[in-house]
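So, can you check?
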Amino acid sequence: MRAILGFLLVLFSAWANSQAFPNKPVKIIVGFPPGGSGDFLTRLMSDEMGKDLGVPVVAENRPGAGGNIANEIAAKAPADGYTVLNATHFAVNKALYKSIAYDADRDFVAVSRIATGATVICLNNNVPIKDLKELIAHAKANPGKLFNASAGYGSAPHLASVLFETVAGVKFTSIQYKGGGPAAQAVLAGDAQVVFATSPTVMGFVKAGRMRALAVSRPLASPAIAGVPGAQEAGLPGFEYNFWFGLFVPAGTPPAAIKRLHEAAARALAKPDVRDKIALQGMDATPSASPDAFAAEVKAEVPFWEKLVRDSGAKVE
């Protein structure tokens, strides 16, 4: 009888613990340094989800290797809901890097998309090109003579420029910098003429008249990037590139914890002030309807990202 009671006590304790999620701080890891879009979204979601979950939610930057360091740390974390990863699509790094120490298909479960954004195509002010059609015409007439400052292999600006070259039928000479900030500075200095960049990186320079924005990487203008036409509106139909960030947890995390995290994220992203803060960063809040819906979206996008990396010809050892 005592053994049975002990067994029941263990079962009840396990049940109580599962019902209590979360009962200690949650950590959201991001594989990018402070100051960028990924860092901003991680800190915003940490603050807002903490209010909903009733426990501290801490943002932790683990930059390096295009996000692979953070991904590996999260993949090896306990599958209990207390470690969350904010990441972009894993297919990019799988296609780009020769070797990675985790298997995204096996090691992660989707929770929710957070936000989606477009890149902005900008020029150095001294380049005598007024709009996107002129840029394409000049690039076609002078293949490889325009220098494109990129934010590193696999970054949103790098992949946006690769897709642009394919759709427009042009070729830049791309130079990889260590992030969007240095790439923008190269264009300001005249070391490069073109930059594909996330909105926060360049719109301050555009508004100050130090750089010229030609289009965003969507067919139509984005309300979050005021005053810049969409690519179709500017003369390049068929060009669309969006980057996104989303939340993932280690595989094996209890469904109840995943559900609770998704609910907290969705409620945070439904708040008008949160959506406004994301819009100021040039992105749109895009919560997923459910973890399963996000997982299906991620799976459906794999061929697109793999092809884009292959087309770029980039490989990282």
In short: Confidence is low (pLDDT under 50) at residues 10-17. The chain has two domains: 24-116+243-312, 118-234. Strands lie at 26-30, 57-61, 83-87, 108-124, 147-150, 173-176, 194-198, 211-216, 242-250, 283-285.
